[in-house]
Amino acid sequence: NAGVTQTPKFRVLKTGQSMTLLCAQDMNHEYMYWYRQDPGMGLRLIHYSVGEGTTAKGEVPDGYNVSRLKKQNFLLGLESAAPSQTSVYFCASSASNTRRVNEQFFGPGTRLTVL
Amino acid sequence: AQKVTQAQTEISVVEKEDVTLDCVYETRDTTYYLFWYKQPPSGELVFLIRRNSFDEQNEISGRYSWNFQKSTSSFNFTITASQVVDSAVYFCALSEGGGADGLTFGKGTHLIIQP
Fold first, then answer.
1. Is the Cβ pair B95, A40 closer than 8 Å?
2. Which of A30, B10, B70, B82 is 20 to 30 A from A79, comparing alpha carbons?
């Protein structure tokens, strides 16, 4: 099993460009999450999804959109990138059954730089 | 609103010393989960432990131990006989209720183990 994978691993954008980050998991997890990690800030939740076709806002959703068209994939979009979105982005997934709830499995991260 | 505080930004110790990382949390829920994750220099997030609010038993796993005290809203992490490989950023995190809506992370403690 690959676990949680993220594409791409690195990306450099110019201000105003758009891009989509892809997260895929092969563990049949219901829940998926996007976080961003900035120096000295820990990880902050951007958006999350509790199932196919559903999404919800987290702590820092502005400037991002997400989609969960397939259970195994969770896409994070930046429509018009800004330098403030320079960060490391982590995707995570977790199961929804009672015994395993909340143990989140993280992808390797995507390092995004916006110039 | 939930909050996690890791007051120690950076700790530096000499190998074989014991070290304790502090974590204080705030939540209004009676049901919640607490976590510790390790982020080594390579950048991935490694799950260490999950503890639910109804289980105050301390836990020991090899050189690692965790002390959960609801009376002081703390979930501290101790590494005994530290090793250079323990050098990493350690994050404490909290999830409320059913846990579907993601983790709230502390800002992390950078642990440096000097040989």
1. no
2. A30
The single residue listed with the structure tokens 């896409």 is A75
DSSP annotation string for B74-91: EEEEEESS--GGG-EEEE
How far apart are the C-alpha atoms of A11 and B62, rounded to whole Å? 39
Q: What's the one-letter identity of residue A55? A: T
Question: Where do we find the tokens 């990382």?
Answer: B21
| Residues of chain B with C-beta less than 8 angstroms from the C-beta of A105 | 47
CA atoms within 13 Å, Cβ hemisphere of A33: 26
Give pLDDT, residue A52: 94
Measure A55 CA to nearest chain B CA, in Å: 10
* pLDDT, tens digit, 9 for 90 and up, residues B22-70: 999 999 988 889 999 999 999 999 999 988 888 888 888 899 999 999 9
Chain A residues with CB under 8 Å of B49 CB are none
- The alpha carbon of residue B16 is apart from the nearest alpha carbon of chain A, in Å, by 27
Over residues A56-66, mean pLDDT:
95
Per the structure block, which two tokens stand in for B20?
């304790």
